[in-house]
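Dear Dr. L.,

I hope this message finds you well. Following up on our conversation about the binding site, I have prepared a predicted three-dimensional model of the protein together with adenosine-5'-triphosphate. For your records, I am including the exact sequence and ligand specification that went into the calculation, followed by the structure tokens. Please feel free to forward this to your student if that is useful.
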Amino acid sequence: MKDSNDKLMDKIISLCKRRGFIFPGSEIYGGLQNSWDFGPLGVALKKNIKAEWWKRFVQNREDIVGLDAAILMNPKVWEASGHSETFSDPLVECKECHTRFRLDENGKSQAPSTKSQINSPPKADPPLAGNGQSGKCPNCGKENLTEAQDFNLMLKTSLGATEGKGSEVYFRPETAQGIFVNFKNILNTTRKRIPFGIAQIGKAFRNEITPGNFIFRTREFEQMEIEYFVREDEWESWFTHWLDQIKQWNVDLGLDDGDLEYVEVSEDERAHYSKRTVDIEYKFPFGQKELYGLAYRTDHDLKAHIDVSGEDLKYMNPDDSKDRFVPHVIEPSFGVERTVLAVMLSAYREENISSQNSNNQAPNNNGAEEENDVRVILKFPYWVAPVKVAVLPLMKKDGMGEKAKEVFDVLKLEFDCEYDESGSIGKRYRRQDEIGTPFCVTIDHDTLENDSVTVRDRDSLEQERVAIADLAGYISGKLNK
Ligand code: ATP
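The resulting structure of the complex is given below.
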């Protein structure tokens, strides 16, 4: 059964903390405004997601190369991109309790998403104008709000020993601009021909007015972005290509198609330079919200950098020097933390163990099952699972512990493995189910006699007897199926 009740977020947050996926940031000091730290399993999960993304879009393709640009960039970058001027959200303050919040999150105005506001032409009839904003404060419920003000979301810091004007720089609010400013370097060093793309995974920072919903909206997060450079007359087919790629990625993450919506962003909600934007939205327990974005950014960014930097960022066809132009761009943009959250929500299951077959018990474990008969499972696709194999001696005594260690030492060279010998076997199975481990290898009395183990399948609960000599091959066969 897939849990779809309102408590799902609470259950996920609690599981994340309990099992070491995600902890509240700076917890021993009372936390820091919705910041989160990824623990041992969380970091392994993120690593798997980022590695697969990189393999799929960079390593396996001839037409995409990678980049890791600096987080702190020359402030002129943000002038050219429009972020200094217009990367803002509408901020209102309650005059009673002084809570500040983003207007569109109060349900009173549906402001366009932050990125799409960049360089958008001023609206003839701004929805936020007026003397004071009508609506209730989400904190105290009173109706006494200030007028909405544009609040720039870029986080500032200063470089060098002197603070103040001239030393101010921004933590990048998106990874994309690092790609545009390196366009020429990459062209010159890789000799790629259009169409080609540049991919980057890295941190981005936004001084969100109201961060929240666990890791959905934070001020520090990671993006996986591609700027794909094309000829203008080919943008439509490449847009379709990237939409298909995102759809396939979502399938491979195990996201239910019914939980996803591919929303065409209307012309007045798009940036003025964008001819098409699709928001990929996921039905989170707190509402349907953006998971990823796909935008056709025309030749806007490169042109803006040509204007502000004075550099020639045109592409020249190596076979035809007259074929020179500013390429157009398709941008698929993926948030790492939102991926983690959607994957966890999709994978979470509670199963009534009494309705399962008796295979949830290890052989010779004397029927030891836990009293609590609800089995919590993270049914991750195998490639996502932070731990692939758990090695569990039925008991520590009689040499089973030593034998299990031997098996673990071999398997760990090939797979993300965990060794666990504490507590009853039933409890250990439950723990592995809860962190989404596809296979549990149990070392029992028979192992000592005939060098075979049982392999328990997370989803079917079936157990197979496998010779230790065949174990690694057996597991990799299952994982790569
Ligand atoms: P939103 O409307 O939710 O603020 P956005 O439209 O501003 O999002 P983009 O600028 O398109 O988001 O950023 C690309 C991707 O980066 C998003 O689709 C999302 O996955 C991720 N992302 C953006 N802002 C945040 C954030 N504050 N916390 C976590 N991930 C984020």
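In brief: The pocket of adenosine-5'-triphosphate is lined by residues 113-115, 174, 206, 208, 217-218, 221, 223, 290-293, 333, 335, 337-338 (CB under 6 Å).

With kind regards,
A. P.
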